[in-house]
Amino acid sequence: MKFLRCVLLLCSFPLFLFAQAKDAADLIVTGGTVVTMDGLRTIIDDGAVAVRGDTIVAVGPRAELESKYQPKATMDATGKLVLPGFINGHTHVPMTLFRGLHDDVTLDEWLRKYIFPAEAKNVNEEFVRWGTRLAAAEQIRSGITTFADMYYFEDAIAEETKTAGMRGILGETFIDFPAPDNKTEAEMLGYTEKFLKKWQNDPLIHAAPAPHSIYTCSQKILQDAAALARKYHAPILIHVAEMKKEWDDSEKQNGMSPVQYLDKIGVLGPDVIAAHCIYVDEPDRKTLAERQTGCVHNPSSNMMLASGVAPVPEMRDAGVAIGLGTDGPAGSNNDLDIMEEIDLAAKLAKITKMDPRALNAQAVVEMATIDGAKAIHMEREIGSLEKGKKADVIIISLDEPNAVPMYDIYAQLAYALKASDVQAVVIGGRIVMRDHKLLTLNEEQAIAKAREYKKSIAASLGLP
Ligand SMILES: [Zn+2]
Prior knowledge:
A hairpin with a 7-residue loop joins strand 1 and strand 2. The chain is 42% helix and 23% strand. The longest helix is centred in the first third of the chain and has 20 residues, at 2-21. The strands form three sheets. Strands 1, 2, 3, 4, 5, 14, 15, 16 and 17 form a nine-stranded mixed sheet that branches. It has a four-stranded parallel sheet with strand order 6-7-8-9. It has 17 helices and 17 strands.
């Protein structure tokens, strides 16, 4: 008996060793060309990404990771590109339901004649929930894993974003007139403080105050919103220097530019995410870099509203972290396709400077990934595929006519590949899209609901 036990022990020992030799992983994305966007911009052919929980535990050659890890699930990315999820640094997701309501007018006319009345008559908690579901489907389909939002009823947006499995910096709007949700500044402060408390330490949702802009918020509202953000270590979302009139008015009223005014009143800082930054001169760019304020460039929106062209190459040269956003999706873009913004950011800079070297393909892919993460102050968590970062991973197919042949990966990403080439999306280790199928959302229902909303919104405005 004793002998048998010894034999059994001896026999099982190597088996025991073998079974323990591989580390556990929940998921391995394997076999693709891994475009890491790490500090060295490492690209690994026939690479792999190993995930445990919501975190990346290893990135490297496929053979090495497959011999080291025993995964519970595998995603085969052979012949495809594997990238960190794209970051949409500025949008207003519930406005999907106003998509195409009235275009080709000035921002002022669009706001006064169409959007403010449409919002007053239609925006409630149910509206923002359906708009967010529709937007989540559209964003996941273009490879977006994190977005920064500014709207009303942002707590409902947070709940829907979490259900969709997306990562969000979600900003509750502060504005100088009664909003669809909160009618006074006291209500805005009360709602937002509750909102910030509720989502503290959530792995996906980062609640934030979003004072709309210097042209719609008093100095007091701007400072109160910033103070609230700092009390809870939350970011501050704001539109900055987004039109010429804003610059002119600030020079007249404050004797300085919008950026210098925000700096003077103590709002600017390393927790601010400034959308647009079109009218920023050299001293402004220096200030933005010194304060480590993140900026988000929205090329579609800036072109569609004829707002102007942000000096993106100059901002990058000055050391400002600058990402990409879709803005909109109504009136100032009309979709949430970040791959279109990658393409347009490069081309807008080129035509403005009349120089095809002004902003290259790699630079704009950086703006949608690692630089976008810096712009929203999340570069320690997301923006590249590296050990210890959140497992936000996308797989892009290279099998469509527009995807072949491929000589340069960054050029292909910037100028040839489309949102429809995004095949799979993982956010925080959870697969939210596989083989173009959304797994966390009822897309058909969201589309049907959007068609219903069109009828009631048009009727509310007396439109056909
Ligand atoms: Zn905006």
